[in-house]
């Protein structure tokens, strides 16, 4: 049941020009940044040789690339998730799901899975770029995988928040804007505590702070738990909200 | 023998802000009934049907579908209902076949069962030729038919259709009405409409809603009985003076229609047709037409809905 909904969702994304254009724009931008990073690395390489423990290609190319990819996801995800409920409610197709003998949790999880699979495809495309470097450079596979995991967890969190906003908001554009606002706020919230201290509660709440650790190759289960809890909380809220019926005005 | 109740609705209420869109509505539906939901725009018809389908949550009340309470056992109850909203809910990017298969999966039909069910409803709704076309490219009539096909796909005992014949051409209209009548034999069907002709053509029972309340509920025949005749149209080849006709027992006044035809207005319980026939024979008026004129349903409808407001 969840799978049927997810497949339909994914299909709906792939036949819409929106999803393809988002993929193309994100990929184009990241490819340009990737080229610049590789170029920089080549220029730096001569100076790095003298260092005792020089940063490798993973630190100088892959980590910054994934850092930018996170910001791309931040902008891209709200545009994908706004469709999930707001748009279906406007076009009336949500009635199919609501009148079918399907629990609200199955509806929410099916749609979440659908958009997640799409985001995974986008992340896979991004990951192909550093993988192309394996032909001529030594990649730190551990760091690469930690970064990928971070990106996946980040996407899962963004999507869960966007899904909730899509249920709450009556208009798709409102859903997208409020998701973007919420995510941006959660990303820069650590600025309040001063960027140096990690123990500050605001810093702990920041979505990107936990991602930075993964990019450095630090695999802390607390970071993983943060993203999982974040996603679960928004999914739970979504299921509750959808069970309560449509938004009232 | 009592027919089994497929649907019980008790004191259903739903408010939008201060507006009580549906106000303590109670009714039942039995197998073999086609219930027409009538009412002016904004009477609460669609809201009621949306609540039955589980799309809108009521503020108060109880809905039992085929023995399952919609709020205690939502999945069993929803399995027993097929719903066509006002706008056929179709994904523009799916083909008709894909749409129907998706809907079948959502209603827990196995792959094989889904295939036969889809083939069956396509046949019934005249969709066999458009299976590979995209929903987005279909005409309004076809979209409507796909919507109906979707509602009856899992063969639910209760079928709820919100204005099912909007946008259909006369030939499709006939086919859909025939389909509804056929469904009505083995299922319970509720359809909403604001067209009285629609109700006369397809329904066995009628409910008239106005401002969230029921103002009439009963068999169509009962509504027809309300169409009491208060006029008699007659045609005479050798008419007497109008003043002579006005003297007939029971006649209030006479309207001259031309071409030797007259309309005799009379009191409800005092039909002058016998007097007309007798006098015509006796005085040689040569009667060639005698037609009771009924109040049309529209009139009753207006009376009922206005009456509840006043």
Structural write-up:
The complex is a heterodimer of chains A (249) and B (310). Chain A has 249 residues and is mainly alpha-helical. Chain A has helices at 2-14, 17-48, 57-81, 83-91, 94-99, 104-132, 141-168, 172-188, 201-205, 207-215, 221-243. Chain A has one domain (2-243). Helix content of chain A is 79%, strand content 0%. In chain A, helix 2 (17-48) packs antiparallel against helix 3 and helix 2 runs parallel beside helix 6. Chain B is α/β, with parallel strands linked by helices and 310 residues long. Chain B has two domains: 5-225, P-loop containing nucleotide triphosphate hydrolases (Rossmann fold), CATH 3.40.50; 229-294, Alpha-Beta Plaits. Chain B has helices spanning 45-52, 74-79, 96-106, 111-124, 140-152, 170-186, 196-202, 220-225, 242-246, 273-283, 297-309; strands at residues 5-16, 19-30, 34-38, 60-65, 68-69, 81-84, 158-162, 188-193, 205-210, 213-219, 229-236, 251-258, 261-266, 287-294. In chain B, helix 3 (96-106) crosses helix 4 and helix 4 (111-124) packs across helix 5 (140-152). The A-B interface holds A 1, 4-5, 8, 11-12, 15-16, 91-103, 244-246, 248-249 and B 16-17, 50, 53-57, 74-79, 81, 83, 85-94, 102-103, 105-108, 150.
């Amino acid at each position: 049941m969840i799978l049927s909904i997810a497949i339909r969702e994914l299909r709906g994304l792939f036949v819409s020009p929106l999803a393809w254009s988002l993929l193309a724009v994100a990929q184009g931008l990241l490819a340009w940044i990737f080229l610049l990073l590789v170029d920089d690395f080549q220029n730096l390489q001569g100076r790095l040789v003298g260092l005792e423990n020089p940063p490798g290609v993973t630190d100088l190319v892959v980590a910054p690339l994934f850092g930018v990819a996170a910001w791309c996801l931040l902008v891209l995800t709200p545009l994908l998730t706004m469709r999930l409920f707001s748009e279906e409610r406007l076009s009336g197709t949500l009635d199919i799901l609501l009148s079918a003998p399907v629990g609200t949790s199955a509806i929410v999880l099916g749609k979440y899975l659908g958009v997640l699979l799409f985001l995974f495809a986008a992340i896979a495309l991004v990951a192909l770029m550093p993988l192309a470097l394996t032909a001529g450079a030594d990649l730190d596979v551990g760091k690469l995988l930690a970064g990928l995991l971070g990106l996946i967890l980040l996407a899962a969190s963004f999507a869960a928040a966007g899904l909730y906003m899509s249920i709450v908001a009556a208009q798709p554009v409102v859903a997208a804007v409020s998701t973007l606002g919420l995510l941006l706020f959660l990303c820069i919230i650590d600025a309040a505590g001063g960027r140096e201290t990690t123990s500050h509660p605001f810093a702990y709440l920041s979505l990107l702070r936990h991602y930075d650790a993964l990019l450095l190759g630090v695999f802390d289960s607390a970071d993983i738990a943060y993203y999982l809890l974040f996603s679960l909380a928004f999914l739970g809220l979504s299921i509750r909200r959808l069970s309560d019926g449509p938004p009232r005005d | 023998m009592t027919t089994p109740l497929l649907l019980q609705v008790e004191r259903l209420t739903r408010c939008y802000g201060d507006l009580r869109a549906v106000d303590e509505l109670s009714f039942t539906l039995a197998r073999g009934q086609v219930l027409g939901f009538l009412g002016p725009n904004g009477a609460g018809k669609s809201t009621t049907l949306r609540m039955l389908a589980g799309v809108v949550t009521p503020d108060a009340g109880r809905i039992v579908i085929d023995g399952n309470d919609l709020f205690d056992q939502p999945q069993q109850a929803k399995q027993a209902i097929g719903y066509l909203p006002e706008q056929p809910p179709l994904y523009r990017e799916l083909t008709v076949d894909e749409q129907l298969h998706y809907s079948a999966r959502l209603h827990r039909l196995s792959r094989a069962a889904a295939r036969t069910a889809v083939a069956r409803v396509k046949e019934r709704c005249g969709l066999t030729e458009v299976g590979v076309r995209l929903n987005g490219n279909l005409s309004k009539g076809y979209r409507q038919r796909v919507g109906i096909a979707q509602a009856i796909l899992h063969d639910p005992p209760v079928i709820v259709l919100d204005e099912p014949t909007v946008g259909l051409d006369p030939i499709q209209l006939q086919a859909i009405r025939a389909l509804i009548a056929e469904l009505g034999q083995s299922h319970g069907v509720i359809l909403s409409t604001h067209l009285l002709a629609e109700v006369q053509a397809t329904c066995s029972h009628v409910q008239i809603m106005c401002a969230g309340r029921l103002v009439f509920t009963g068999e169509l025949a009962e509504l027809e009985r309300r169409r009491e005749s208060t006029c008699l149209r007659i045609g005479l080849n050798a008419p007497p003076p109008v003043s002579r006709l006005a003297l007939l027992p029971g006649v209030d006044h006479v309207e001259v229609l031309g071409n030797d035809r007259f309309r005799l207005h009379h009191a409800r319980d005092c039909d002058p047709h016998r007097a007309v026939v007798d006098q015509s024979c006796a005085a040689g008026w040569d009667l060639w037409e005698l037609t009771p004129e009924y109040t049309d349903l529209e009139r009753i409808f207006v009376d009922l809905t206005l009456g509840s407001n006043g």
